[in-house]
Amino acid sequence: MINTHLKSLFLIVCWLFAASCHKQDPGEQNEFSEPDEQPDVSREVGFTSFGFGIHQNVLLLTQNIDCSISDDRITALIASAKTADGLIPVFTGSFEKVEVDGVLQQSGVNAHDFNSPVTYTLTGKDGQTRSYRVVVKVYTGLPIVTVTTDGGLSVTDKDTYVDGSVSIGKTPDFTSGYEGRMRMKGRGNATWGYEKKPYRIKLDTKSEILDMPADKDWVLLAEYCDRSLLRTTYGFELSRLAGLPWTSRSQHVEFFMNGIYQGTYLLCEHVKAAENRANVSDDGFLFERDNYWYQEPLWFTTVRGHHYTFKYPDAEDMTEGDADYTFINDFMDEFEQVLYSDSFKDPATGYRKYIDADNFARWFLVQETLGNIEPNPYFVLESRSDKLKMYPVWDFEWSLGLAARNTDGTWASRPATSPVSCWYWRNNVYFDRLFEDDYFVNIVKTHRQTMKTEWLPALAVKTDEVKENIKYAQAENFKRWQIMGKYVSVELVSFSTWEQEVNYMKDFLQKRIEWLDTQFNE
Questions:
Q1: Where would a tag sit more exposed on the chain, N or C end, judged by fewer CB atoms within 10 A?
Q2: What is the domain partition of the chain in residue ranges?
Q3: What is the chain's Cα-based Rg?
Q4: What letter does residue 456 receive in the DSSP assignment?
Q5: How far is CA 128 from CA 69, 70, 178, in A?
């Protein structure tokens, strides 16, 4: 019995000794280990593994990160880190040497700033080469905006700026971040009353951010009631596809204030008259039909009772009755009187003398297709000799089936659902009268054909890309703001998962398009 045990033990020791003497194929190194010798050059040049190990990278804490290798692209998401600077990769494969910008690389030794893509070039013994573009994203993969206010002060209202600094980390998707001084205050109307606050940021220096043109003025939209986090994206993208003169550029970001995570926000260009924004000359106007007109320092009311507030010229530079104020008030009064006159269809003296009908039709299609219940429209008179236009689009939080109003203007109450089969803008503002003219109706129909064949397919592609881009971010956002399955305002639907929210929105849009087909006899 003892001899049998000794014999078994002897065989095990011999097997372990033999295994320890066996050298593994250097072309197939264990992940996160160092290669013992040069790879087998008889194989095709390439990486078989690429990743980041906890022994080389303290930021990874307790988890090795395996990268995904697809053709010549290597990608990874590191949720435990807020920056990809100074990361050291570990790699295996078949190669004679590995270089980055002509500098030899060793697995587990050479660090790089992976906040931008890094290209690795592999060379085989026979001179064969292959390059990989390594893209590493951190946290949720979105750019991280970090605001630190002086003295840790809170932003408590929409009137008082708080000084501080802001850092906007670029990711491999962008070439420009930002770091510098800024001022910050609250913004919005009803949205300022929610727990997750929207903000306005004014940089000290006019700067390009996340590949958006340089400016000082930016906005952080909270999208608190929109649990898809996508409705503004739909609105902005469809506006661009519809060819409106300017649409605010935007990027989803992760926002931290004074070290505390605030959630996923949409960083946007602030609406203003400026280079690369609303195209308004010195004698032009940018103004808004504003439901909150009475809260503004200066406004005017037209003969048909529409209230307008000023974006350009600045209200602080005008007084009621001065030349600029009088000109735009008179212009809108005259336009309204002509539009609702018996001769409003006349090509020379009717409404077409005052407005860009093609532009109005495009704006209408964007809003009506998305069932947008409550935008406050912006109007632009680019110069006093131009015709009135409608742009930029804004306010999409109640679009795509999220809310509805009763015929008396009050908000619909739950458990109703937002109707697909109704007009949202056909009988609103000036469109009630415009649709009495076949000339305008035919413009709408023409653009709608283009919308169906070109704009909407492109919209689906773009919004699916954004949906994929925020899939990790939304999870963190709703850990911070636990509102899934809860009602926070006048919305009519509330689902328990983000995927259900997105699917509801997409289904509403599809049904909306089908209903509009019946209305235009298509």
A1: N
A2: 26-138, 144-269, 285-519
A3: 30
A4: H
A5: 19, 19, 40
List all residues 6 or more positions away from 145 whose beta carbon is below 8 Å from its beta carbon: 166, 167, 168, 169, 220, 253, 254, 255, 256, 265, 267
Q: How many residues does the chain have?
A: 522
Q: Which of 2.60.40.2340, 2.60.120.10, 3.30.230.10, 3.90.1700.10 is the CATH number of 26-138?
A: 2.60.40.2340
DSSP readout, 285-339?
A: EEEEE-TTGGGSS-EEE-TT--EEEEEES-GGG--TTSHHHHHHHHHHHHHHHHH
The strand ranges marked E within 101-247 are 103-104, 118-123, 129-138, 144-149, 162-169, 178-186, 199-209, 212-221
- Token pair 């300022």 in the structure block, residue: 192
- CA nearest neighbour of 310 among 290, 291, 326: 290
* Nearest by Cα to 377 from 290, 298, 450: 290
Residues ≥6 apart with Cβ < 8 Å to 61 = 54, 80
Please give the Cα distance from 43 to 33 (Å, whole number): 20
Per-residue pLDDT tens over the stretch 412-432: 988 777 889 999 999 988 999
The residue whose two tokens read 């219940």 is: 373
The neighbour count for residue 22, using CB atoms within 10 Å, is: 6
In the numeric block, which tokens belong to residue 254?
């992760």
pLDDT digits (tens, 9 = 90+) for 253-285: 999 999 999 999 999 999 999 999 999 999 999
Q: Is 160 helix (H, G, I), strand (E, B) or coil?
A: coil
What is the rounded distance in angstroms from the CA atom of residue 315 to the CA atom of residue 320? 9
Residue with the two structure tokens 């040069």: 38
**Token pair recorded at residue 231:** 């409705």
pTM: 0.88
Bridge partners (DSSP) of residue 429 are none
CA angle in degrees (0–180, nearest 5) for 216-217-218: 125
Instruction: State residue 266 phi and psi, 5-degree precision.
Output: -110, 110
Q: Closest Cα to residue 309, out of 327, 324, 297, 321?
A: 297
> Helices marked H in 243-290 — which ranges?
none
Task: With beta carbons less than 8 A apart as the criterion, state whether 268 and 188 touch.
Answer: no
Provide the residue type at 13 as one letter.
V
pLDDT for the residue 59: 77
- State the amino acid at position 381 in one-letter form: L
Residue owning tokens 């043109």: 213
Q: Identify whether the C-beta of residue 339 lies closer than 8 Å to the C-beta of residue 430.
A: yes
